[in-house]
Specification:
39 strands; Cadherin; 713 residues; Immunoglobulin-like; four-stranded antiparallel beta sheet; 7 helices; glycoprotein; four-stranded mixed beta sheet
């Protein structure tokens, strides 16, 4: 209620209310100043209202006091429920987490006034989630109440209640569900479910064959379940194990070939160990497990086995047929111990050189061997079970042919040796070397000397250089080609083989017309001339004669060549289709009667067949007459026949088509006449007077066309 102090002075006043909600939410009694609320108020929508009041004299309607402002506050009551605005709540925490560790905090809100009463004071409690979780009543923090194993249950649903009025009776409440997921930790060791494993492997299985698989289960997930497999014991050299990272299986592989006859059963220990170990759980025990794997070797019918995979044998070259090379041995590894048959199976030429005893594996030669042709022979020997011919095995035999000194040395090449006529005594004229097809163990060493028959009177000497070469020196001075053109020097060459072999090689020395230094080219030329028996002058004369003969032949060929055709004849052949040839010569520009077109129009000419020798002249006359008659005339047909005879008999007529101009169109044409001579728009309608202005060179052409036009008129 509003009240003015002026009411004591008996002034008749009225109260006026303005501001927020005046006249709608709040009403004032203008006589006593009491303020009334006309509707329910919601503090959560508007907590206070600002109003203004003034006292007015009813008689004068003037304010008696200044306007005053006041605030009406809405007092809160507990009319709102708590709300969890952040739902849904999801949290993840590692399994086996210690007690008291925080998991997540939930928060509820209340629309009531927290500063007045207990309507907005909330209290949290756990409805579902014991005994693993707890919640702090005032903060809403959820904590671990005990350790939880993910392998037992990996997800928990916890229900939290928020209650206002500090949990007193009549309070409002709300609940929220919290999903708590447990993440995995490596707290579980691997375990083999099968003990023991039984497997088998064939004795003929190759290295790397998969024998079997083992598997240890681990209730952990991800990398916490990753494990590695190992083999323990003495069998680790025969078997190996690898880990399949996708399936976490252990794959047992054959590391070494097994033999049923040697060992028929293996017992190995397979161990699975976690790859990543959490030190916090080591006290729980070792994170590994073991199992026994029993592997049985299966017996199969195996092929024979050679004592060696590769045999190396030796034999001297030139050995007689049937000489022993060596022996190969194979046996059946099975219990039956089947007999074995041997054979050579590679190459026909090898079979011709070697043979093998099929019962005992003895290899002998079938012909003498030459090391210089083939120092090594590679053959393949097979061993076949007699009881089961499908069981075959092979072995390589490498036979080396040992060298025997069976080839005498010889000069390494054919030497071309020259000596000057003015050579002095003791002059080196040639260095020689030798070669030997043999290959002694200690290497080659050759000895050189003159043959016995040439030592006394020889004009040359041989000096052994002790390095497998020798020098040829002159023993005397001065040589004359006229007396002796060449010398043949026998050289004795001995090798160091056992026994040593000797050969005599003849060295030809040619005397050259030079001073002391030999010119190889010049000396070769002289030697060539000497063998021909010609001197230099004679050779020059022969060459000169040959040259003269060639010039004479070329001149004869040039004279007999056909003459070149004249350009005019080529032009005639090129433009023969447009040229009509006549035997009579024109009269020049002054001759106006040479080709009178007007005379062609007369129809009184009769054609007769002329002899072939005058066919050209007669055709010229018939051509003029044909222009004067119609196409059905006998003269016209005769003209065509004469032209045909000309083409067939006259050798001077071109063999190609010739375009001829005729005055009439042939009969029987569906297209009608194509000639301009018989049309209304013929050339006769044209004016050819302008041809006179072209000069004297075109005078005859002007006369011809003018007369043609007059004839048409």
């Amino acid at each position: 209620q509003l009240k003015s102090d002026l009411e004591k002075e008996n002034i008749n006043l009225k109260y006026v209310l303005t501001g927020e909600g005046a006249g709608s939410i709040f009403m004032i009694d203008e006589n006593n100043g009491k303020i009334y609320v006309t509707q329910k108020l919601d503090r959560e929508k508007k907590a206070f209202y600002t109003l203004k009041a003034q006292a007015i004299n009813k008689r004068t309607q003037l304010p008696v006091e200044p306007e005053s402002e006041f605030i009406i506050k809405v007092r809160d009551i507990n009319d709102h429920e708590p709300q969890f605005l952040d739902e849904p709540y999801v949290a993840t925490i590692p399994e086996m987490s210690p007690e008291g560790i925080s998991v997540i905090q939930v928060t509820a809100t209340d629309g009531d006034d927290p500063s007045y009463g207990n309507g907005a004071r909330l209290l949290y409690s756990l409805i579902q989630g014991q005994p693993y979780f707890s919640v702090e009543p005032k903060t809403g923090v959820i904590r671990m109440a005990s350790q939880v194993d993910r392998e037992t249950k990996d997800q928990h649903l916890v229900i939290i209640q928020a209650k206002d009025m500090v949990g007193q009776s009549g309070a409002f409440s709300a609940t929220a569900t919290v999903t708590i997921n447990l993440s995995d930790v490596n707290d579980s060791p691997p375990k083999f479910k099968q003990r023991p494993y039984y497997m088998s492997v064939s004795e003929e299985a190759p290295v790397g064959t998969t024998v079997g698989k083992v598997f240890a289960e681990d209730s952990d997930t991800g990398e916490n379940a990753a494990m590695d497999y190992f083999i323990e014991g003495d069998s680790s050299d025969v078997f190996d194990i690898i880990t399949n990272n996708e399936t976490q299986e252990g794959i047992i592989l054959l590391k070494k070939r097994v033999d049923f006859e040697s060992k028929r059963r293996y017992s190995i220990q397979a161990k699975a160990v976690n790859r990543y170990i959490d030190d916090r759980f080591l006290k729980e025990g070792p994170f590994e497990d073991k199992t026994t794997v029993i592997i049985t070797v299966e017996d199969v019918d195996e092929p024979p086995v050679f004592t060696l995979e590769n045999y190396v044998m030796e034999i001297a070259e030139g050995a007689m047929n049937g000489s022993l090379v060596g022996i190969v041995t194979a046996r059946d590894p099975d219990e039956e111990d089947s007999p074995v048959r041997y054979s050579i199976v590679q190459g026909i030429h090898l079979k011709r050189s070697f043979s093998i005893n099929e019962h005992n594996g003895t290899i002998i030669t079938t012909r003498p061997l030459d090391r210089e042709i083939a120092p090594w022979h590679n053959i393949t020997v097979t061993a076949t079970e007699t009881r089961n011919p499908e069981k075959i095995s092979e072995a390589n035999v490498y036979i080396q042919v040992l060298d025997v000194n069976d080839h005498a040395p010889e000069l390494s090449k054919r030497y071309e040796t020259f000596v000057c006529e003015n050579a002095v005594s003791g002059q080196l004229i040639q260095s020689i070397s030798a070669m030997d097809r043999d290959d002694p163990m200690e290497g080659h060493h050759f000895y050189y000397s003159l043959a016995q028959e040439a030592q006394n009177e020889s004009r040359f000497t041989v000096k052994d250089n002790q390095d497998n070469t020798a020098g040829i020196f002159t023993a005397k001075s001065g040589f004359r080609r006229q007396e002796q053109f060449s010398f043949h020097l026998p050289i004795l060459t001995v090798d160091n083989g056992t026994p040593p072999l000797t050969s005599t090689n003849t060295l030809t020395i040619t005397v050259c017309d030079c001073d002391t230094e030999v010119s190889i080219f010049y000396c070769r030329y002289e030697a060539f001339m000497y063998t021909l028996g010609l001197s230099t002058e004679a050779l020059v004369a022969v060459l000169a004669c040959i040259l003269i003969l060639l010039v004479f032949i070329l001149a004869i060929v040039a004279i007999r060549q056909p003459k070149k055709k004249s350009p005019f004849s080529e032009k005639i052949e090129e433009f023969g289709e447009n040229i009509v040839r006549y035997d009579d010569e024109g009269g020049g520009e002054e001759d106006t009667e040479a080709f009178d077109i007007s005379a062609l129009r007369t129809r009184t000419v009769k054609r007769t067949h002329k002899p072939c020798k005058t066919v050209t002249t007669e055709i010229h006359s018939l051509y003029r007459q044909s222009l004067q008659v119609g196409p059905d005339s006998a003269i016209f047909r005769q003209f065509i026949l004469e032209k045909l005879e000309e083409a067939n008999t006259d050798p001077s007529v071109p063999p190609y088509d010739s375009i001829q101009t005729y005055a009439f169109e042939g009969t029987g044409s569906l297209a009608g006449s194509l000639s301009s001579l018989g049309s209304n728009t013929s050339d006769a309608d044209q004016n050819y007077d302008y041809l006179a202005a072209w000069g004297p060179h075109f005078k005859q052409l002007t006369v011809m066309y003018t007369s043609y036009k007059n004839a048409g008129d």
